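Exercise 4. Each item below gives a protein and its sequence. For each, produce the structure-token representation.

Item: Ankyrin repeat, PH and SEC7 domain containing protein secG (Trichoderma asperellum).
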Amino acid sequence: MGRHNIVIAVLPNGEYGLSSAARVARDMLHSFPNVRIGLMVGIGGGAPSLKHDIRLGDVVVGISDKSGIVQYDFGKAIQGQEFQETGFLNQAPTLLRTAVGGLMAQYESDGNQIKEAVSSALVRKPRLQKKYKRPETTADRLYRSHVVHPPFDSEAGCAAVCGDDASTLVDRAERGEDDDDPAIHYGLIASANTLMKDALVRDEMAKKGVVCFEMEAAGLMNHFPCLVIRGICDYSDSHKNKEWQGYAAMTAAAYAKHLLYRITPNKVEAENKISSVVSGHYEVAKQHREIAGEHLDVAKEHLKSQKDIANERLSEKERECHQLFRLTSNTSYYGHVAVVKALIKTRADIEARDTKYGGTPLSWAAANGHEDIVGLLINNGADIEAMDINNGTPLLWAAKNGHASTLSLLIQKGAEIDAKDITGGTPLLWAARNKREGIIGLLIEKGADIEAKDVRHGGTPLLWAARNGHEDIVKMMIENRANIETKDFNGDAPLLWAARNGHEGIVKLLVEHRADPEAKDTRHGATALLWAAKNGHESIARLLLDKGADIEAKDTRHGATALPWAARNGHQSIVKLLVERGASIEAKDASFGSTGLAWAAWYGHDDVIKMLVGHGADVEAKDFNDATPLLYAARNGCESIVKLLMEFGSGIEVKDSSGQTPLLWAVKNGHDGVVKLLDKSLES
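Answer:
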């Protein structure tokens, strides 16, 4: 890589943790004994604080005054004990810390160019776009620390379950044009074998200087001189998802590459071989192992003696009771009717709650559709409105999970039909979200509120059905006279959600029932056509245009029409559709003054460029920075785009407002192929 000889080692698929990292490093050094420095590059969970405004996709570098890495005791942390700074590990090598300082100074003056580096890489490898491109900014949600992802929906995405209600999210200003995005943060990285998923513990550790959590570095730092670099893919809380992992890995790798450019090979050669450092620890480790073995033998003997004593003290009756009560937490969950009856006869606590979710036996039975047990518990006095830790009632869980007969029984026994959980979700709301058609019909028949809104999103059953693509439920809601223009807290109407998420059948259904195609959400100010164009839903865009949607409508956030958005995101077929329907090919957004052609050049969409130029787009159009499409293509290393624009007659000596030419940008950003192409053209 450049002038350096690089060895890349990765953890085996599905493995993570301190021991796995140590094992891979050991094997690497065995195969390549001349390795002198290491970079541990990957993803991690961020720890945002007032000092560090960490966002998803940002990069964290393990550099601090005391150490770059601390190994923490997660078991103690989740019990709320004071964080003890006793596990600090060795600093990264001086060579790497010096390089970090130099790169930090460079970034302060010129910006970090991480975003451009990632874009350039994805242009060269377009098949990686799906997994590694940057997700939408709206997918970056930092929830307040007290907001916990609902336990029964542990596998569901936060976009569907927790959403973006202002009362549950941390209010953060958008980054401006002069701000680095992604940003680079320097501080303490906390490492352990256990995944951090507790926002309250995260915040306490952030007060001590921790900016990131991960699971490998502590296994290496004292024996493998390296610098830890992590791309932030989540916020170390219960709202974890994989949406940002690919992009976060790319930003971390881009930083690592920039760092290597600042280190000369002769300085690396002056460092000691890591293998020689490791061998120096061998004898000490061997002695520790022998001592640990002796301690283990003593511990085993002690435990055996204690076990024998405990068994002697347990009477046969006590053991029988233990066996009976061992089943208590599972009886309602798994539907053990006989065991439930036996426990009731022994006067077991019918309102006992599990310690994790706060669910009662009735809650679990209803959630899993065990109608017989539900009836048995209710007839023996179980509280039909008992709530779990998220205020979920038995009726709500029966509706959510689609158990119609159990739901009917609970309603018959007098359960509140519009009970709300902590999110404001009613049984009808959850049934609509989870596509429970049979449940919905039953609830509506029994008088459930069809316009109920949850408190996190302001979503009604119709909104959730449209958002999640449940066409039959949308039809059912319309037939029951649900408000077709209802809006959630972001001003999104059902038509906007359906167009945004690509649900063509629902869009058609809503338009046929006179939904307003020009309605705009309040967060982006975008119409249904804008969302369809932006997200690549050609058939929906065509349908909306056929119904008279305004082709020149602009969003309020960027002042962009549908054509620049489609071009920016590489949706060639939609660009073609819009041009054929009369969209202005030279329309510019209000934020940057960029045309569709400029955006296509920036993101490397050559098919869009060919189509636009073929319809007469101006290849010399300048934005607010006096930059042309070719200048941006050169800046981002899009060699094929530069060549294409040159063939279309674009000038190569143009200067932007900072005085930079395409050649200067290409040289500055290390795009050798573009440099050669431009040099050759200038010489001819």
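Check: The longest strand covers residues 38-46.
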